[in-house]
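Q: Hi! First time doing this. I have a protein sequence and I read that you can turn it into a structure. Is that right? Here it is:
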Amino acid sequence: MTVSFFDGHNDMLLRLWLHDDWGAAAFLESDGSGHIDRERMAAGRMTGGFFAIFIPADKRKMLAVGPIEQKHALTQCLEMIDIFDLICETDFAPCREKSDVGRKTGKTPGKTPDRIGAVLHIEGAEMISDNLDELDILYQRGVRSIGPLWSRSNIFGHGAPFSFPGSPDQGDGLTDAGKALIAACDERRILVDLSHLNEAGFWDVAACSARPLMATHSNAHALCPAPRNLTDRQIDAIAERGGIVGACFASSYLRDDGRKLADTPLEVILRQLDHLVSRLGEDGVGLGSDFDGAVIPAAIGDCSGLPALGEAMLANGFGTELTQKICAGNWQRFLRENLPD
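A: Yes, that's right. Below is the predicted 3D structure, encoded as structure tokens:
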């Protein structure tokens, strides 16, 4: 069986932006840097994914959690969208409406036959002010998914910290502006990402939104007690709402010791997938790699190594139908059901 892949989260746009690669040369010319480029996506049978925009507080310290000025964040965000739009000219097919998902779109001559279905995603909404005026600008530029928080505080709430081990139940929930942002996203059918939210914020989103719940790149806290991971109670709430969780490949959110080690076996990912399926059901689990944003198990390495995960799933009893659902089908169905008409 040939398994294809749809990824719930990557930071490729940030990587290009950090290197002032306004022409996306590293991606288009497949220079081997990072985890994602044109050739490796084809080798990994990657048919689509969520492409995140993340604004660092400090280019030199990516995990810095200091405050970010809104206008500064908006400028950087729009620069990353410009890079995304450039890649859309040749390689990406933006997923902005239900009908865009899975649509076959030929590339320019000499390139691989189909474009990559790409959802433009915000990871940390620092570029949006408390009056939410920027939300429609971002929507017009193609943003269809927003995580209100990264692992830092902003005007909308508080993110889950990086401490290990620890509970996600640290800090207050959403602010009034945060609750207004969730309502505004619901009105526009912008997906809301729960990954990086602390637990109080998670429950506030669940109360504010009537839509299916989504965590693009999170794992089970029961197996890896990082505050960034979801408790079984949170996972069950996502299941009750017909939502989805993308299992994250970041070793620090996979391993029970929380270490950032490429020497992390695929079996650890399989255990996470098995646990998530046991609580979410076969339709509620996808993948959310965190390529270009984390230390990834060496057995995968980069997006060209995705087939190794598919093979491991098949060899360990997931079955052909469930393997394809987790690797691509569940994300594609979820988007067809929840993007704007």
